[in-house]
Amino acid sequence: xxxxxxxxxxxxxxxxxxxxxxxxxxxxxxxxxxxxxxxxxxxxxxxxxxxxxxxxxxxxxxxxxxxxxxxxxxxxxxxxxxxxxxxxxxxxxxxxxxxxxxxxxxxxxxxxxxxxxxxxxxxxxxxxxxxxxxxxxxxxxxxxxxxxxxxxxxxxxxxxxxxxxxxxxxxxxxxxxxxxx
Length: 181
Hints:
The protein is of the alpha+beta class. It has one domain: Pnp Oxidase, Chain A, CATH 2.30.110. Helix content is 44%, strand content 25%. The chain contains seven helices and six strands. The protein has a six-stranded antiparallel β-barrel, surrounded by four helices. A hairpin with a 2-residue loop joins strand 2 and strand 3 (72-77). The N and C termini lie far apart (41 Å).
């Protein structure tokens, strides 16, 4: 069962991770602090995803780690170990929004792109997304790794962190339109 797999993977990793965000409010505060900076100029490997709220119809923006390959962008809805152990089926609001309306905007280095987002289920595309997300290491990933894992960040630790996120999270792809808007 998927939730058992996620719970087991999280339980195996929980000792290595810092408990950075303790509540949903903490996550909203962190995102609120990061959002203006990323809207202005997202660094490589990061972006701002804008979805349409499934209940309100309002635009909702979220800071995300995203890797672009051609006309596709790959990202993962993360489940930190402390959440995955207790709620392995937890789903971020932005994923619910994509399920309701897959049309999104993505601000990444290179511009703002309109696109259509979807959860990845195809095995070949999952493999491509996993490689793209887990192999990519950018300068900002070292700081991110220091926030999430104990000890000094290394390229190997960063890639292990990304593999954990991919294997326990919800992989999403965005089919980007040709040119930035």
